[in-house]
């Protein structure tokens, strides 16, 4: 499945649900003192929170004739929520640790590690009392290290570079102040290398 298919599918679902939710304020029930037991009744009592996500990414191209290793790891984020009517904005700072390796021809092994540090923004639209659609991006820099070994020889390199991402996904309330987050990110790490596509799954908490 390519990136256009993923983005189109998530986007169409989000827009359809947004159109349905836009007819009324999703938070109106809580503002008038409704006695509803949903986790979202107190979901945004606090404006701050954190998240932890697992990430798995694959390279979208074949740069320089090489199929680069997939990357997997985790991302830790701190965020601030800014309510604005029936929607809210989220500002975040994110730290990640990713690794991956691939063997070519049974002889040559390529291993790489990537540590991204990025500031993020997302626009969040509540679709129901327990689901939210989000769309946003991140920008920052990353430190990377790669190592190629084979035939008793080994070469390596480490450096840092800018990085940016676009992201889309959904949040589902699973507890009073806890969301299950499922999303997709397309991330550019190197200017001369095609982007990586990540599936992300994790949890977000409000303090």
Automatic annotation (TrEMBL):
Residues 1-21 form the signal peptide. Gene3D superfamilies: 2.40.160.20. Pfam families: OMP_b-brl. InterPro entries: Beta-barrel_OMP (IPR027385), OMP/PagP_B-barrel (IPR011250). Residues 12-207 form the Outer membrane protein beta-barrel domain. Keywords: Signal. This is Outer membrane protein beta-barrel domain-containing protein. It comes from Akkermansia muciniphila.
